[in-house]
What does this fold into?
Amino acid sequence: MTKATELREMSDEQIRLVWKDAAESLFRLRIQSQTEKLASPSEMQKQRKLIARCQTVLGERSRESAVSDEGTSTETDSTSTVSNN
It folds into this structure.
């Protein structure tokens, strides 16, 4: 089980791989649940939570980068405005 703290230590590419593996596993479990009884029904919930954790960490990172990009563009804009006057 991958915790959110473990995911935050991974690179974006590693998180996407974990996400992809969890999605494939969830797909297989859904098919298996339709055709036969699952040995561990709680595994589906675990995979869904792992996918949600991956999406959350990647979303946090994208918001952080957007905020930092805005901060640098604002500083550049204010500097250029001051130098033009």
In short: The chain has one domain: 7-77. The CA atoms of residues 51 and 68 lie 26 Å apart.
